[in-house]
Sequence to fold (162 residues):
Amino acid sequence: MTPLERYRELYEYEIDCNSKMLEMIESVPEARRSDERFQRAVSLSGHLAACRENWLDRMAEGGANQTEWYDENCSLSGLKERFAALQERWARYFDELTDEVREGDFSFTMRNGERGTIPIEVQILQLICHAPYHRGQVALLVDQLGGETVDTDYLYWTFRDS
Fold:
């Protein structure tokens, strides 16, 4: 499997995980949704969406359309549509990504106004590695709130058709 094929596969895995993460949050009983941990779980999910939106904007579109990295008041109601839209954009990005581009760098303006440069492949790996960290936090919060958690381990995903 080529590196591009591997990244595309890992992104398919992430799409599945994002769906499961949102299902977990939605499983929290209504009576427990006023608990601050529920909002934290929703906001962490929104943070994952923002990371995907912002880094793709920086990598492929010049970085002019940045969104807040972490919204403490993120609403669950719009997250499914937000993830669907960003997943479509990322799927298109991976479909069009070439080895030449993957092996290159991109520059962006950091929050402090300075310019930074990162290899595209490093940022792709960062995004792939960053998401499970926060999904684990969401799963723990959902469990504490009496919702139903779902295993999102990569190993189980690879055996989904077995």
Remarks:
- The chain has a mean pLDDT of 93.
- The longest strand covers residues 105-109.
- The chain has one domain: 3-158.
- DSSP finds six helices and two strands in the chain.
